Amino acid sequence: MSEPSPVTTRREGDVALILVDNPPVNALSQAVRTGLLAQVSAAVADPSVHALVIACEGRTFIAGADIREFGKPPLAPGLNEVLAAMEGSTKPVVAAIHGTALGGGFEVALACHARIADPKASVGLPEVKLGIVPGAGGTQRAPRLAGPVAALEMMASGKPVKAIEAKAKGLLDAISGPDLRADAIALARELTEKPPRRTSQLIIPPYDQDEFEKAASSVLARARGQLSPVKVVEAVRLATRLSFEEGLKAERAIFAELVGSDQARALRYAFFAEREVQRVPHLHGVEPRRVDTVGVIGAGTMGAGIAVALLDAGLRVTVVETSTQAVGAGWDRIAGLYARAMKSGRLDESGKDERLSRLTVTEDFGDLAGMDLVIEAAFEDMAVKKDIFARLGTTARHGAVLATNTSYLDVNEIAEASGRPADVIGLHFFSPANIMRLVEVVEGAASAKEAVATGVALAKRLGKLPVTCGVCDGFVGNRILAAWRQVTDFALEDGALPQEVDAALESYGMAMGPFAVADLAGLDIGWARRKRLAATRDPRGRYGGTVADRLCAQGRFGQKTGMGYYRYENGKRQVDPEVSDLVENVSTELRRKREPFDADRLVRRVRAAMVNEGAKILREGIVARALDIDMVLLHGYGFPAWRGGPMFEADAIGLPAVLADVRDLHQAYGAGWEPAPLLVELAENGGSFAAHGRPAA
Ligand code: CAA
Fold first, then answer.
1. Sequence-separated (6 or more) residues with CB below 8 Å from residue 387
2. Of 15-24, 177-186, 345-354, where does mean pLDDT reach its minimum?
3. Rg (CA), the chain
4. How confident is the model at residue 283, as a pLDDT?
5. Which residue among 415, 418, 597, 635 is least crowded, i.e. fewest CB within 10 A of its CB?
């Protein structure tokens, strides 16, 4: 017997209510497309039906094409065929939207004659994030409703738009009351009085050509190597010039070109890896502990950001500081973050007051006694942290999870100091902690599985992306960063200038060049770390910190001092000739020959350093899967999502080529740069990081 169709029709008098039911997100699988076409055609042919409503069961309207079908041969019927039947109907067709109408889902709605949405719904065309453009008329229909500028902004950012805003833009016709379906049926009946309003037949509303060109240039400037936003601009431009039919044909060609591209493949991988990374194999079935109250130790930049993230998620938060003055400053810092959120319109007065009503800032360490979980965000110093954990060990209640936000220090040593290491984990947030999505959940040698699962659950509750890893210096992200940043430091000594290195890596697709990032983060942190590691550094290895040390010795700590690798005037970054001189002097002093800068070689070396360190991390079992590493780089370090991540990209390039680059690194930089044994094995045996550690199918 054949499977029941995920699309059915329920009669509501003279209206056919066509319902899609394809959990979890009503993706437009082949069965859904077939069902929609059949039900729409039947309703159109049935003389007793006067109007149609398309609605969905479950948590959302159609959330888009079934991404799993991309990259495979297309299966009939295509979505455009379904939409042509829908839009061509002589009876009104209304979309009743709840949840998120995304991608192909919103394209279904755009092809209806009217759209009504629940006030909490949102709509969007996020295809650009999957490396493609809307492929079922979205690039041609959205500009006809919202105008080319608003349509371009929506498609180029891929960000969903809330129902109220979407209505203001002309993308929706009505916002429903509490009963969406009843309102949609009523609207459909009203429309039987008029001829159907077909989006494809509308003319592009008048718009400001200069404004469009400005929006287009800004999209192109932000694309940094990613193809899909560039193609969105092209498709919208065509919508302003061509007939709907010609525009649709052109859109189809662009879609077909992109969907099989390396970038789209990488972005699909990133989409699924982002979900997979949260399913930690060895924590399967482990129940997290209950968390309602959280303590935070330290109200500096990190502590305040963490407190805001916790408050935003509805938790009760107690922040501990060491003096009355620090308590006041801590409160101000947290309130300041909320003031900024209000200024940008992300939060209103009552939202701020409600959040602050759940916050206590205190000098009394004893107030942590009742907390379900405590996050230490104090000064990055082992003695300070051990002292805090020794006190926490006796103060915190039985079963409370004790987390350190250290970025580099040994979580096992900190855990031992508490006297109850099973309760201790690392929760490594990234700055600004209320914004950045990544959290490394660090599992110590003695951490109880429930404690780790609690860290993962808490991070998810904060809307963050938890990546679980083991203990090593710098964990996943900072350890890989330390490796490839050395390559960029060596490059300065060997002939490059900071702005050249930054430009090369930005054109590779990184959100920001490493020296600009260093200036933003503050050079003093790295300085302290280099001093701490000086005694244990392998004397055979090349040291790359001389330029940074000299900058720090001059008090050039980055943006906060107005000077670092660059000079800052009115917050604007500028190349500083004094830095160029300093860099050249360091080369002379170290007797390094300055060679002409080769951007391509630098990029290959940076990637090789990342992959080599990643291979070591995998072999040491710090993480179980290559995708864990990729997700850390994508969500915490501005690595271009359209490359998938360094490990994914290495597989795509071919491991023998990457190994050759690592050998070049080794030859150039000597001890410490030997190829990782796992990389050598995989490269020589035709293996891949994707398949590594996974049982053969
Ligand atoms: N295709 C296939 N599977 C999908 C999917 C899609 N479009 N969207 C979500 N899923 C899957 C997820 O992989 C996940 O599966 P697992 O439980 O096995 O991990 C499950 O559905 C639930 O998804 P989330 O965990 O993401 O659930 P959420 O509630 O947090 O978010 C969502 C829901 C906002 C819809 C989010 O899933 C999302 O953004 N999905 C992608 C939407 C999208 O990009 N649509 C455009 C597709 S391209 C297109 O439509 C092209 C075209 O022009 C025809």
1. 417
2. 345-354
3. 28
4. 95
5. 597
Test site for ligand 1: of 20, 22, 25, most ligand atoms within 8 A of the Cβ: 25
Distance CA 154, CA 151 (A): 5
b/e map of 36-57 (b: 16 or more CB within 10 Å)?
Answer: bbbbbeebbeeeebbbbbbbbe
CA–centroid distance, 624 to ligand 1, in Å, is 25
DSSP string, 421-470: GGGEEEEEE-SSTTT--EEEEEE-TT--HHHHHHHHHHHHHTT-EEEEE-
Q: Give the Å distances, CA to CA, from 621 to 443, 626, 697.
A: 12, 11, 22
150 neighbors 60 (Cβ within 8 angstroms):
no
Can you give the three-state secondary structure of 55-103, one letter per residue? Answer: EECCCCCCCCECHHHCCCCCCCCCHHHHHHHHHHCCCCEEEEECCEEEC
Work out whether strand 359-362 and strand 316-320 pair parallel, antiparallel, or are unpaired: parallel
Contact status, residue 667 vs residue 538, Cβ threshold 8 Å = no
Residue 129 class from Cβ within 10 Å (0-12 exposed, 13-18 middle, 19+ buried)? buried
User: What are the structural domains of the chain?
Assistant: 7-258 (3.90.226.10), 291-469 (3.40.50.720), 477-597 (1.10.1040.50)
pLDDT, one tens digit per residue, over 456-467 is 999 999 999 999
pLDDT of residue 272: 95
pLDDT band at 696 (very low <50, low <70, confident <90, very high): low
pLDDT at residue 1, rounded to an integer: 55
Q: Is the pLDDT of residue 693 over 90?
A: no
Q: Exactly one of 87, 107, 321, 500 is catalytic; which is it?
A: 107
Ligand 1 centroid–CA 63 distance in Å is: 6
The model's pTM is 0.93
Residue 587 pLDDT level (bands cut at 50, 70, 90): very high
Which residue's alpha carbon is at the smallest distance from atom 18 of ligand 1?
Answer: 275
Set 127, 376, 506, 613: catalytic member:
127
* Token pair of 79 as six digits: 């979505």
Q: Which residues contact 408 (CB under 8 A, 6 or more apart)?
A: 380, 473, 474, 475, 478, 529
Per-residue confidence (pLDDT) for residue 79, from 0 to 100: 95
Task: Reply yes or no on whether the pLDDT at 73 is more than 90.
Answer: no
Q: Which of 1, 594, 584 is nearest to 576 (CA)?
A: 584
Predicted local distance difference test score (pLDDT) of residue 431 = 87
